[in-house]
């Protein structure tokens, strides 16, 4: 009878030990799973940050290019306007030279006409 009680206690102790081991393994498994989930979430956050940085950098480069294009167009327009103003100035100077020559020739004709009539 004692033997059976001892065997029963031993079996009971073994089951309790086995149950504790199974619970411990389950706890380790859950801890690993939680650690893996935390790692995956961390990677997702890092990826989101990286994508945001790339997006911000791309937008900044695009803004720089737009600003550069605007400044370049502005400079081209200013050069074009300066050239047009210079051409107008040359044209006006040529026109004034022609008027002055015509007046000079007219004055010479008048002077010659006065000389002939004297």
UniProtKB/TrEMBL annotation:
The keyword Coiled coil applies. Keywords: Coiled coil. Pfam families: TPH. The keyword Coiled coil applies. Residues 3-115 form the Trichohyalin-plectin-homology domain. Residues 33-89 form a coiled coil. This is Uncharacterized protein LOC105666455. It comes from Bombus terrestris.
């Amino acid at each position: 009878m004692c033997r059976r009680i001892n065997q029963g206690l031993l079996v009971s102790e073994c089951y309790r030990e086995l149950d504790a081991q199974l619970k411990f393994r389950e706890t380790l498994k859950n801890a690993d799973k939680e650690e893996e989930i935390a790692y995956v979430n961390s990677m997702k956050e890092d990826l989101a940050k990286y994508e945001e940085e790339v997006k911000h950098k791309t937008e900044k480069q695009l803004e720089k290019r737009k600003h550069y294009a605007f400044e370049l167009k502005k400079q081209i327009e200013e050069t074009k306007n300066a050239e047009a103003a210079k051409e107008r100035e040359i044209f006006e100077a040529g026109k004034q030279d022609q008027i002055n020559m015509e007046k000079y020739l007219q004055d010479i004709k008048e002077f010659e006409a006065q000389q002939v009539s004297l």
